[in-house]
């Protein structure tokens, strides 16, 4: 593995005549939590969508573990070990919690249509393994008691945990979290911070985070990129970012 798990160089994104992102450079290192912050309209989500394969950048390069992924569609990016959550939770709301975790494993299950049709031994093994993995993540995320409930009936905090579990069950190398604290109460935000710390520690993953809740960002991040008007202002450790006059100006303005 390269020293940089993810590297962006000169990223640009145009929408017609609007240059929404211009000249964004940063890297995410193995086992690091890297956050992107900035006022509304700073370009954070656009960067996320370029990295995750939802937008094809207008310029620049995105490299994952030494291999270019610039412009690859999202499903191919996911196969390379980069998965994401969304600010507006996207679950299969009519499926049960455990069914959501089974669907998430479709890229890992190497059993074909004919195997399923004739219920071969290989198909049964793959099905059993998928159920065991789902059970593990239900337990790890504290969702076992609601395993057979429809996902859309869960509390917001449980839905967020299910969304993260659905990502983690694919064994990613880089987990992208898009405003994971949105809609959570103060206790759930504390639990989320502990969860991110634990996932990084236990599974050795890297985390790329967009978040408006500054207490969460400062508490969980190793480094932070600050953006304004589509351009980077600075990259630094939480204490450096917290006290930087450029960051204070971007958030609070000038007299």
From TrEMBL:
One Gene Ontology term of the biological-process aspect is: L-alanine transport
| Pfam families per UniProt | ABC_tran, BCA_ABC_TP_C
User: Which GO CC annotations does the UniProt entry carry?
Assistant: plasma membrane
PROSITE patterns from the entry? ABC_TRANSPORTER_2
Q: Kindly state which keywords UniProt assigns to this record, in alphabetical order.
A: Amino-acid transport, ATP-binding, Cell inner membrane, Cell membrane, Membrane, Nucleotide-binding, Transport
Superkingdom in the source lineage = Bacteria
| Ranges for domain ABC transporter | 6-254
InterPro entries, sorted: AAA+_ATPase (IPR003593), ABC_AA/LPS_Transport (IPR051120), ABC_transporter-like_ATP-bd (IPR003439), BCA_ABC_TP_C (IPR032823), P-loop_NTPase (IPR027417)
The family database entries (CDD domains) matched by this protein are listed as:
ABC_Mj1267_LivG_branched (cd03219)
One Gene Ontology molecular-function label = ATP hydrolysis activity
Matching entries from Gene3D superfamilies are given as: P-loop containing nucleotide triphosphate hydrolases (3.40.50.300)
Which family, according to UniProt? Belongs to the ABC transporter superfamily.
Query: What is the name listed in the Swiss-Prot or TrEMBL entry for this protein?
Result: Leucine/isoleucine/valine transporter ATP-binding subunit
Species this chain originates from: Pandoraea terrae
As recorded in Swiss-Prot or TrEMBL, the protein's gene is named livG_1
């Amino acid at each position: 593995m390269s020293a940089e798990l993810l590297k962006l160089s000169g990223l640009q994104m145009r929408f017609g005549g609007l240059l929404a992102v211009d000249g964004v450079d940063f890297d995410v290192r193995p086992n690091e939590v890297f956050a992107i912050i900035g006022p509304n309209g700073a370009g954070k989500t656009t960067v996320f969508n370029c990295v995750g394969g939802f937008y094809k950048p207008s310029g620049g390069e995105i490299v994952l573990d030494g291999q270019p992924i610039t412009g690859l569609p999202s499903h191919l990016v996911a196969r390379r070990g980069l998965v994401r959550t969304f600010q507006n939770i996207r679950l299969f709301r009519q499926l049960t919690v455990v069914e959501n975790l089974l669907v998430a494993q479709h890229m890992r299950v190497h059993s074909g249509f004919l195997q399923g049709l004739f219920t071969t031994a290989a198909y049964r093994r793959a099905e059993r393994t998928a159920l065991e993995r789902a059970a593990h993540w239900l337990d790890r995320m504290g969702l076992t008691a609601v395993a057979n409930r429809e996902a859309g009936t869960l509390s917001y905090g449980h839905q967020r945990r299910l969304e993260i579990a659905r990502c983690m069950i694919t064994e990613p190398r880089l987990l992208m979290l898009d405003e994971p604290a949105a809609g959570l109460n103060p206790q759930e935000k504390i639990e989320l911070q502990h969860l991110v710390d634990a996932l990084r520690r236990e599974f050795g993953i890297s985390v790329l985070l967009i978040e408006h809740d500054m207490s969460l960002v400062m508490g969980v991040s190793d480094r932070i990129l600050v953006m304004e008007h589509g351009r980077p202002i600075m990259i630094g450790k939480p204490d450096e970012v917290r006290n930087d006059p450029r960051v204070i100006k971007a958030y609070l303005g000038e007299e």
